[in-house]
């Protein structure tokens, strides 16, 4: 346990670290990659360039410090991070170098304000929290290693089928190269794909939500092609997968992980997605229909229009076949054909008023996934609808915990 003096120093200085969080995160990764360049292979290089990974680190450090006396408050964050660490292969031996580098970054940014007493207190705190992470991650490794069809590290898979779902989203059906069983998973979880792309210095790693119900002899991921736009380049990985990964291609994959999962109870459930955020929601919807057909499901999806709306026919078919499933669609910019066919329920953006009108039971459990601006709006609406936090769940494809302001 941490002594009272250490706890006091950390609580007093946590706001200072938060104030300088971006600079500390940036300096940390500069130092880390200069010390251990091979760790570049574990990180999303696009998030690094955009500064998202740096902000994610600083957010986690601040949350740990601010809640040092009540670590139960950060259990959800710890669970989410340990799941990603297991998927990435983070090990106990990585923690000392990360801790030393983090403290060096704090000293570099804060200068004389980072006294030896403060650095020592944060060093003790880091070691204390690192032990919590290491123990939790070892449990996850042990569980996956002994799970039927489970594996540690990467395993070779072959693309069995490649199916275009919309103008921007394509599904890839993956089967194990060795023909042996694969680990099951919970609806909403993801697998991690490791790609060595010609011309790229480091391995690119991406987490992709599984977009089918578990229990099959394959994994399905549905990948959005990220086209470039103002000040944002095209996605290196997504364009490579769309253009160069075909049926018969081989991919290195880490076993399923993730904490964004549905509870197996019979309460009504509302699934709200935007854009490619539909992928884990499809897994959840298919799972409920297969295993809990009596459960009430409201499926709400927002997209630009039908041209980029993946799996629309499948969702519509389920809604027609199962009276307990309701589907609602919001298009920001419907095409002329969309308007002629009246194949959507709302034009424009998702709003509090519209959500309130289509959600029958506010005692339901709510799951949200999509672009960050979309999720901020939806989570803010759920708060305004007085949905308790323990019934409001979300998955962010960004590493940054920036939804606390919602």
TrEMBL record:
It comes from the Bacteria. Consists of two distinct domains; an N-terminal heme-containing oxygen-binding domain and a C-terminal reductase domain with binding sites for FAD and NAD(P)H. This is Flavohemoprotein. The record marks 84, 395 as: Influences the redox potential of the prosthetic heme and FAD groups. NADP(+) binds at residues 275-280. Residues 152-263 form the FAD-binding FR-type domain. Pfam families: FAD_binding_6, Globin, NAD_binding_1. It catalyses: 2 nitric oxide + NADH + 2 O2 = 2 nitrate + NAD(+) + H(+); 2 nitric oxide + NADPH + 2 O2 = 2 nitrate + NADP(+) + H(+). The record marks 29 as: Involved in heme-bound ligand stabilization and O-O bond activation. GO terms for molecular function: nitric oxide dioxygenase NAD(P)H activity. It comes from Alicyclobacillus fastidiosus. Its cofactor is heme b; FAD. The gene is hmpA. Belongs to the globin family. Two-domain flavohemoproteins subfamily. In the C-terminal section; belongs to the flavoprotein pyridine nucleotide cytochrome reductase family. Heme b binds at residue 85. Keywords: Detoxification, FAD, Flavoprotein, Heme, Iron, Metal-binding, NAD, NADP, Oxidoreductase, Oxygen transport, Transport.
């Amino acid at each position: 346990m941490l002594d009272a003096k250490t706890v006091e120093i950390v609580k007093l200085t946590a706001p200072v670290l938060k104030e300088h969080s971006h600079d500390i995160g940036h300096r940390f990764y500069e130092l880390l990659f200069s010390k251990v360049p091979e760790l570049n292979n574990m990180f999303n290089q696009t998030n690094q360039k955009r500064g998202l990974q740096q902000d994610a680190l600083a957010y986690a450090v601040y949350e740990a410090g601010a809640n040092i006396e009540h670590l139960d408050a950060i259990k959800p964050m710890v669970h989410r991070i340990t799941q990603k660490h297991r998927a990435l292969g983070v090990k106990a031996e990585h923690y000392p170098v990360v801790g030393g580098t983090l403290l060096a970054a704090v000293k570099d940014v804060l200068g004389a304000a980072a006294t030896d007493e403060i650095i020592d207190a944060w060093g003790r705190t880091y070691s204390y929290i690192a032990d919590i992470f290491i123990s939790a991650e070892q449990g996850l490794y042990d569980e996956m290693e002994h799970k039927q069809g489970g594996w540690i590290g990467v395993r070779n898979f072959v693309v069995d089928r490649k199916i275009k779902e919309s103008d921007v989203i394509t599904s890839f059906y993956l089967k194990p190269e060795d023909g042996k069983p694969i680990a099951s998973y919970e609806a909403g979880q993801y697998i991690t794909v490791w790609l060595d792309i010609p011309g790229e210095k480091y391995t690119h790693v991406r987490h992709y939500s599984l977009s089918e119900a578990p229990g099959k002899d394959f994994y399905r991921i549905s990948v959005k092609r990220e086209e470039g736009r103002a000040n944002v380049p095209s996605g290196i990985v997504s364009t490579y997968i769309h253009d160069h990964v075909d049926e018969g291609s081989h991919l290195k994959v880490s076993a399923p992980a993730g904490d964004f999962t549905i509870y197996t109870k019979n309460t009504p459930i509302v699934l709200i997605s935007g854009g490619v955020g539909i992928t884990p929601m499809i897994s959840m919807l298919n799972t409920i229909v297969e295993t809990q057909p009596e459960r009430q499901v409201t499926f709400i999806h927002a997209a630009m229009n039908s041209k980029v709306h993946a799996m629309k026919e499948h969702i519509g078919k389920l809604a027609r076949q199962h009276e307990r499933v309701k589907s609602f669609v919001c298009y920001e910019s419907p095409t002329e054909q969309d308007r002629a066919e009246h194949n959507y329920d709302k034009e424009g953006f998702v709003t509090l008023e519209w959500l309130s009108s289509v959600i029958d039971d506010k005692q339901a459990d709510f799951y949200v996934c999509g672009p960050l601006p979309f999720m901020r709006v939806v989570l803010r609406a759920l708060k305004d609808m007085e949905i308790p936090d323990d019934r409001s769940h979300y998955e962010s494809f960004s590493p940054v915990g920036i939804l606390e302001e919602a």
